[in-house]
Amino acid sequence: MTANAPITQDVLTIPRKLAETGKTNIIGLTRDQLREALIAAGTAEKQAKMRVGQIWQWVYYFGLRDFGQMTNLAKDYRALLAENFEITLPEVVTRQISEDGTRKYLVRIQGGHEVETVYIPEEGRGTLCISSQVGCTLTCSFCHTGTQKLVRNLTAGEIVGQVMLARDDLGEWPVKGAPNEATSRLVSNIVLMGMGEPLYNFDNVRDAMNIVMDGEGIALGRRRITLSTSGVVPEIARTATEIGCLLAVSFHATTDEVRDQLVPINKRWNIATLLEALRAYPGLSNSERITFEYVMLDHVNDSKEDAYRLVELLRGIPAKVNLIPFNEWPGAPYKRSSGNRIHAFADIIHNAGYASPIRTPRGEDIMAACGQLKSATERARKSRAQIAAEAGLEG
Ligand code: SAH
Ligand code: SF4
Fold first, then answer.
1. pLDDT (tens digit, 9 = 90+) per residue, 36-76?
2. Catalytic annotation present for 276
3. Which of 213, 300, 372, 380 is most buried, judged by most C-beta within 10 A?
4. What is the pLDDT of residues 103-119, one digit of tens each?
5. Ligand 2 pocket test: which of 137, 138, 293 has the largest number of ligand atoms within 8 Å of its C-beta?
6. 133 Cβ closer than 6 Å to some ligand 2 atom
7. 299: phi > 0 → left, psi -120 to 50 → alpha, else beta; which?
8. In angstroms, what CA-CA distances link 17 with 26, 87, 160, 314, 328?
9. Does the annotation count 370 as an active-site position?
10. Given pLDDT bands bounded at 50, 70 and 90, which one contains residue 374?
11. What CATH number does domain 24-86 carry, 1.10.150.530, 2.60.40.10, 3.40.50.300, 3.60.20.10?
12. Shortest-distance ligand to the CA of residue 147
């Protein structure tokens, strides 16, 4: 147990007032929404576009949270902003740092709900895995998020906020006046692979990603963002046309019989329907392949026959296959496939001409992996409660 203990777990309680202020949070507003809000607060219409540009740069380029420091705005205008607006991120409740540098943030959003955000540093880059919902309405049988009862969509601000709080923690905002050293980015990539089904919260995800991609702010390229869906067929095309990011699909099985079990949304949109939508995906090309995620479940979906069937199904689709060794959670009805089975599967896919990387588990000591998000925290709480009970501290 102790060998796997996280290196640090510090509790950062940032007392941020939410809701009660009655002010409009700037984080998460699109440029158009911000413009309208500024006009409604008394900004002259002629000036509104320019003000949006100025505020945008402070908030999303420099990461500033205080209107008082927006030095290119007149003092009384800064006061007007402070009266009507706030610049508020969700609250980081705990941060855990794994032995391999992976950071997991437990983030509290309005209403007291919690989601998790995970930062995975890699050589010369870093990927931030963000959540789009609290829980998930879908009930994939291998995914712990799917067992959570409560579901609420995150707002655009809560989605952008996850990116911003990671940049805060990593110290990634440029400093005004300091030379802009073009070093590699810490958060260079974003994957929508945390809690929730992003295509069931499309508008907020779209607005948030458009804010993150905006060239005068965080300015992350569209190809550095990957949205993962379980297969919400009617919304798939909009991912290309309204966001333009890369697409990953939680495929996980090669027959409808098995996929119905693993990814129950398959009963609504089966493999053939899903593949048809993917073949028609706007912008699909060899340089913008679709990632097929495939969780390796021992003797469930990991046979050689499965691998050959998968190759057949992929025919004609610019694709790569991401093999994910199952992350086991207590009470899970599956086991992780053996290394041998995973490699045999990967070889078949690879020999058919598709990239088939096996995802290296990261942050295992802090349970930062797919499908485990949030659940670990719930367990930690439970064990703390148990400890308290044992020590007679309860009540
Ligand atoms: N709801 C979206 C995105 C979040 S899940 C989706 O399903 O695509 C991100 C990825 O993690 C998905 O491919 C999902 O199937 C996978 N996943 C979920 N639980 C997992 C587990 N216990 N082990 C390995 N991968 C898991
Ligand atoms: Fe939801 Fe994705 Fe988990 Fe399925 S795998 S329950 S769609 S989060």
1. 999 999 999 999 999 999 999 999 999 999 999 999 999 99
2. no
3. 372
4. 999 999 998 899 999 99
5. 138
6. no
7. left
8. 14, 11, 18, 49, 37
9. yes
10. low
11. 1.10.150.530
12. 2
Q: Beta strands 246-250 and 290-296: pairing type?
A: parallel
Strand, helix or coil at 203? helix
- What number is the average pLDDT over the span 368-390? 55
Which pLDDT value is given to residue 380?
53
> How many CA atoms are closer than 13 Å to the CA of 134, on its beta-carbon side?
18
Asked if residue 129 has its Cβ within 6 Å of ligand 2, the reply is no
> Is the minimum distance from the CB of 250 to ligand 2 under 6 angstroms?
yes
Measure 171 CA to ligand 2 centroid, in angstroms.
Answer: 31
Nearest to 342 by CA among 298, 290, 311: 298
Q: Closest ligand 1 atom to the C-alpha of 143?
A: 19
Q: Domain locations in the chain?
A: 24-86, 91-390
Which residue in the list 114, 116, 197, 293 is annotated as catalytic?
116
State which ligand 1 atom lies nearest to the alpha carbon of 197. Answer: 1
| Ligand 2 atom, smallest distance to 136 CA | 1
Please report the pLDDT score of residue 395 as a whole number: 32
CATH topology of domain 91-390: TIM Barrel (3.20.20)
| Ligand having the closest approach to the CA of 375 | 1
CB 201 less than 6 A from any atom of ligand 1: no
Please give the structure tokens belonging to residue 307. Answer: 């691998």
- Using an 8 Å Cβ cutoff, are 133 and 223 in contact? no
CA distance 105 to 36: 33
Query: DSSP state, 87?
Result: -
Consecutive H or E run containing 189:
strand 189-192
Q: Which ligand is nearest to the CA of 198?
A: 1
